[in-house]
Amino acid sequence: MKRFVAILLAVMLVVGLTACAAQEAASTWEDQYELGIRYLSEGNYEEAIIAFTAAIEIDPMRVEAYVARGDAYFQSGQPEKAESDYRKALELDDDDDDTAGKLVDALIQQGKLEEAAEILEDLIEKDPSNPDYYDKLANIYEQLEQPEKVQETLEKGVEQTGDQQLSDRLEEIAQEASGLPPVPDDGISREVVEMSSGDELMELSFAEGVENLEIRLGDGDYNVDSFFLYGAENVSIIGTGNTRLVSTYGTETIISMYDCDNILLYGLIMGHDLEPSMSCSTGVVELLSSKDIKIIGCDIYGCGLHGINASESRFVVENSIIRDCSMHGAMLYSSRGIFTNCTFSGNCYQYTSNPVFDLWGESCSVNLNSCVIQDNLGESKYKLADGAEFEESDTIETGNSWQ
């Protein structure tokens, strides 16, 4: 009996010691891991790596320690060691998408772009709603100089997530491809409306007091017959550079504005498409008692009498072309126009006794900055009356009839 009791006590002692040892080991793993997390949050990466390594030695099957040590390696500028730890973590848990994303970052840091792209493609297939995946994948394709895949990735990302940053980036790419300057941002909030036909656009014509509106147009022809803005304020009409506002009637101005303020025409091709036997009796863009009108990245062409006809208005034209207008490139009465990086070509072909710029009226002026004036058929560059002024700098003139 005594012998049995002695054996029983010995067994209980061994079991107790084993349980205590296991409890101590578990506690030690937690201590080391939490110590590493604290060091990592403090930016003490070297001590964090030591603590996480100790935790891994205690229990090499715990995923968290490999991920955390990988983070410490990555943040301390050792992406190759971070890659190793992230891969080990994924061996233990291959459904950990967060760690897969971290592995992507480590691979990118080492220039292993193709492998990073493959992992991102897999992540997108598993979770197509995460915009960060598309953004990183587009960045990789950008570095690999594969613009088609950049656009394809962003388009898919916008379709799947609706993310605004991806959409903005896609728009920037389209703008760069068009060769247009950036759309100016005046900080005013506008309702955005997309229109696909001239009929939709003409529904706004003659509507009084349109304000805070951004009209976005696509590629192709928009047939308009004297689109008229009356009392409009803070309105932008944004084209793609391949957007054509055209009329088949020579008696109709393409766009007219009266008493308007802060209007932007951007990326538009505007003019008259007439049969050879027909002629124009009006201009292309007409401004009446309007101010802060901006025309940017546009192509304004004849047979319209004038590319721009302005009366008591203030406007700027940038990175645009005014060409093949039959009477003048621009005619201004008591208006101020500033033209920057613009080209005037082939104007005054029917009324050859006229100037390219016809200016009259008190406070009327034109400023040309870095513009090209070429192959115009008028008898002079400009004509001034009633105190009008014409100033220019860095103008290039070639092939004009007065030269």
What does this structure look like?
With 403 residues, this protein is of the alpha/beta class. It has 10 helices and 22 strands. It has a 15-stranded parallel sheet that branches.
In short:
With 403 residues, the chain is an alpha/beta fold. The protein has helices at 2-42, 45-58, 63-75, 79-92, 97-109, 113-126, 131-143, 147-161, 164-178, 198-202, and strands at 191-195, 211-217, 220-223, 227-230, 233-247, 255-258, 261-272, 285-288, 291-296, 299-301, 306-311, 314-318, 321-323, 328-333, 336-340, 343-345, 355-360, 365-369, 372-374, 380-385, 389-393, 396-398.
Instruction: Report the β-strand fraction as a percent range.
Output: 25-35%
Distance between the termini: 130 Å
Portion of residues within helices: 25-40%
Summing up helix and strand content along with how strands pair, one would put the structural category as: alpha/beta
Average pLDDT value?
91
Computed over alpha carbons, the radius of gyration is 35 Å
Query: Main sheet?
Result: 15 strands, parallel
Q: Count of DSSP E strands?
A: 22
What would you call the shape? elongated
The poorly predicted ranges are 4-26
Counting DSSP H or I runs of 4 or more residues, the number of helices is: 10
